[in-house]
Amino acid sequence: MQHTDKAPWWRSAVIYQVYIRSFADGNGDGVGDIAGIRSRLPYLRDLGVDAIWITPWYTSPMVDAGYDVADYTDIDPLFGTLGDAEELIREAHGHGIRVIVDVVPNHSSDRHAWFRAALAAAPGDPARDRYVFRDGRGDDGELPPNDWRSTFGGPAWTRVPDGQWYLHLFAPEQPDLNWENPEVRADFERVLGFWLDMGVDGFRIDVAHGLIKAPGLPDLGGDGEDVLEPTDRVDHPHWDRDGVHEIYRAWRRVSDGYPGQRVFVAEAWVANPQRLARYLRPDELHTAFNFDFLRAPWDAARLRDVVDTTLGALTDVGAPATWVLSNHDVVRHVTRYGRPHTEGRGPRHDVSEPLDLEHGTRRARAAALLMLALPGGAYVYQGEELGLPEVEDIPEDRLQDPVWERSGHANRGRDGCRVPIPWSGDAPPYGFSATEDAEPWLPQPELWKTLSVERQTGDPASMLELYRSALRLRRENPALGDGTMRWNETPDGVLSFSRDPGFTCVVNVSGEPYELPAGAEVLLVSGDLDGGRLPADTAVWLATS
User: Fold this and answer.
1) What is the pLDDT of residues 467-476, one digit of tens each?
2) Fewest beta carbons less than 10 Å away: which of 135, 272, 298, 399?
C-alpha cells in the first residue's frame, strides 16, 4: 500500500524529536522550553516534518532530565504552563504539524505523591502496593531481594528506614511502579485521556518493554544490564514480559475512542524483530522504533539483513517500520559512523579511538537518504539535520546524566548527544537562547558556529539542505513512505532497491565507485557523483522507468 491521503498518517510520517531542554530557550534561562518550541515551529514546518515528539515536560525534580515524573498531568515551571502547552498544540496544528508527547509508565519520581504516601505507610499497606516493595534477604533483611542491577549502574534496590527495599531499574529517584496493581493501570489510562482531551496526537512510550516483572522476582543470574543494551533473553525477569501486551491493548482501546488517528510509538529494546512485532499487533500499539537499524554497522550485508528481517516481521502483523538513526540516548550517528569499531554501540563509545568526522558525516548523509527511502516512517533527532556530532569533551563538572555518578564515573553518559543545538551566530549560545548572555545548561563547542541553521541555510552542500530536499521529495513522490520495495542485483557492498512507481535508491557502502544504471534521472544525491559513478559512502535517489 503506497501512502495516500486516505492511509493513516503515521504509516509514512517523518517525526522530529524535540529534546525540550536543548531545542530552543524562549525565556533566556539556558534551558529549552515550550516558548522556544513555539518560536521555531516555522522552521519545523519548512523542514518538512509531519509531527514532533516532545520529551517529558511534566513536573519533575529533573534527576533524569524529566524522565522522573512527579505529576503526569502538569507542566514543570522550567518549561512553561499547561496553557503554554495548549497553545503549542494549537499552533503546531495550524502549521500542519502533529504533536506526540512522552509518557513514562515504568517508573515515577520519588517525589510523586504516591511514592511519598508509600514511604509514609507501613509494610503491607495498600499505598506500598503501587510500587515494588519487598523484604530483603539475609538474617535481618540486610541484603537486596534479588540480584537485579540498575541500568544506570549499581544495584536496582534501595532500602528504606523500616527495612524494606524498593525496586528502581533506573536511578533510586525513579521507583518502579507495580503494574499488577489495578490503581496504577486505571491512573495511566486517566493520564492518557487528559492529554488526548488536550489535543495531542499520540504518545511515545518510554521503556515500553518494561512494566511487568516475573512472579517471585527471580534472580537475573549474573547477566549485566546496561542502558539501551537489548537483552537476547526471551524469558527475562523484568524486560519484555508477555504481560505488557494486556496493558497496551487497554491503552489502544483508550486511543481508539478519540478522533483523528491518535498514535503510539514504543521504545522497546527487545531480542529480535519478531518480539518487537508482538507490540504492533492490530489491537496493540501502532509503531515502534527500529533500534536494530540504529545499531547496525555501516556494512551492506548487515543493513540489508536488518531491513529484510524488520519488514518481514512487521508485515506479518500489518504494521509499518519506523526507522531511526539517533536519539537522546545514543551517540550521534555522525560520530558513530566516524569510528567504525564503535558503530551501533548505543550510548557507549571509546573516545580513545581516532575519530574521522568527515568520514562520519559522509556516511551520515548517505544513511539519511537510505532511511528516508525505506518503506514506513522515520524519526529525525533534533540536530541530526544539521550534521551535529557527539560532544565528547564536556567538562566532568558539567556532566548531568545520572549514568555518570551511578557508574562511578566509568561511563560519561548521554550528555554528549543532548548539547543545545545551534541556530545562529558565532558564539554561545548560538541563537539557542532568547538572550545572548544566557549560559546553556550544557556547554556548546566552538564547532557549533559552522553547523548552525543560519550558516547552513541556502548552502546546497549542507546537511540541512540535504534533509530539506529529501523531505520535500519524499512528500511529493508517490513511491515513498509506506509501501513495499524490491532489491536489485548489485555487487557486494552496494545496496539498491526500487519502489513503485519509478523510484530507485542506491547506497554504496563499499570502497569502490559503482556504475549507476544508464538513463536514470538523478533526483538527489548525498555527495558529488564521479561522472556516472556513485562514490563510496554515498547514496542517490533515482527516477527510473
Assistant:
1) 999 999 999 9
2) 135
List the strands of the sheet with 165-167, edge to edge.
133-134, 165-167, 157-159
Confidence of residue 226 (pLDDT cuts 50, 70, 90): low
- Tens of pLDDT, residue by residue over 452-486, are 999 999 999 999 999 999 999 999 999 999 999 99
Q: Give the contacts of 306 (CB within 8 A, at least 6 positions apart).
A: 290, 292, 293, 296
Query: Residue for cell digits 549514568?
Result: 403
- pLDDT value at residue 285: 98
- Three cell numbers at 421? 543545538
Q: Which stretch of DSSP H or E encloses residue 265?
A: strand 263-266
CB atoms within 10 A of CB 61: 15
Q: Give, as one character, the DSSP assignment of residue 363.
A: H
Summarised one tens digit per residue, pLDDT across range 140-175 is 999 999 999 999 988 999 999 999 999 999 999 999
Closest CA to 495 of 508, 479, 513: 508
Dihedral sign for Cα 244, 250, 253, 257, please. negative
At which residue does the C-alpha cell 554497522 appear?
Answer: 297
Q: Catalytic residue numbers?
A: 206, 267
Residue (of 394, 398, 393, 453) closest to 421 by Cα position: 453
Give me the amino acid identity at 17: Q
Mark 103-125 as b/e (b = at least 16 C-beta within 10 Å).
bbbbbbbbbbebbeebbebeeee
| Angle value at C-alpha 394, between 392 and 399, nearest 5 degrees | 115
Residues paired with 53 in a beta bridge:
17, 100
Three-state SS for 289-342 is: CEHHHHHCCCCHHHHHHHHHHHHHHHHCCCCCCEEECCCCCCCCHHHHHCCHHH
Is pLDDT above 50 for 296?
yes
* Whether 204 contacts 53, CB under 8 Å: yes
Instruction: Tell me the CB-side half-sphere exposure of residue 398, using CA atoms within 13 A.
Output: 15
Spacing of C-alpha 268 from chain mean position? 10
